[in-house]
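Input record (Table S2, row 314):
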Amino acid sequence: MNQISTRCLIIGSGPAGYTAAIYTSRANIAPLVIEGQQPGGQLTTTTEVENFPGQPNGITGPQLMEDLRTQALKFGADIRSGLVTEVDFSTRPFKAKTNNGLEITANSIIISTGASARYLGLPDEQKYSGLGVSACATCDGFFYRGKRVAVVGGGDTACEEALYLSNLAADVFLIVRKPHLRASKVMQERVLNKSNIKVLFNTNTAGLFGEEYLEGAHLVENAGKENEQHYDLPIDGFFLAIGHNPNTEVFRQYIDCDAAGYIKVKGETTHTNVPGIFAAGDVADPIYRQAITAAGMGCKAALDVERFLNEEGL
Ligand code: NDP
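Output record (NDP complex):
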């Protein structure tokens, strides 16, 4: 076992974690970052990022994360691989253990473990990942200008993604497993009134097909009923919008979360219910979920940590 003590442990390495690392490093707090299962977070699975301010020519998701990491290292952040698998927030200093044998004690903690998009669980989703399958219309929609795309889901996210895509793509199909949408009334109306969005109710996706890139989806309408029907829908893009799972499992014993598992923060701050533990990015944000909002929250968490350590004389 490797034992480390730190003034600030940052758990997770997406835009929130790395930004928190840049700010805390520059404030001489010497943070320790544990990168987590997917170093760089969700952005490492996207291709081009064109909406991050200060990148007029666009930048790939992996490159953006590499740049943020380099910037944090430049100011002295201690960035290590590993996954936090166990925590004890009942006493201070807080304790955390990783899957690769680190035992950490920390005066303060920033949780920035992000959220993972839910997938249907079809093997084809992996096969066409980045080749037509995406879980983020805002990130990848632009590549489908004038093309045919499908969005899976019936909630607000799915409707929002379908509307966003309808301004870029020629045709948008919304694949909804139930006979109705779950989204708010206003979103439902917008979707149903949009001429190039077609809602396919009572429909499930059985598989995807295509030579190299995605070319279509195998759909089943009215599965299990007398009028069950199988058909192929030719599409260029397949967007998952069936919800996200915040990565909070390991903290829930100590940290207050909402019904969906997102960490609750106090007001405009990043304070959780445990003094000295802060949350930033998608793990505490079910609404915006953008790289830039996560980065902004990472900055806020770092400033909250700085104040906390000063006030506590730590
Ligand atoms: P939701 O949980 O609200 O909706 C998920 C949707 O995906 C449901 O229609 C669900 O179907 C469907 N779904 C789930 N699993 C599967 C599956 N395996 N196969 C097919 N369909 C599936 O998630 P959202 O991300 O849409 O929203 C999360 C929260 O964020 C909500 O509270 C929402 O209101 C909020 N939000 C608000 C926005 C806004 O106000 N602008 C924008 C985006 C989100 P079913 O209905 O059958 O369960």
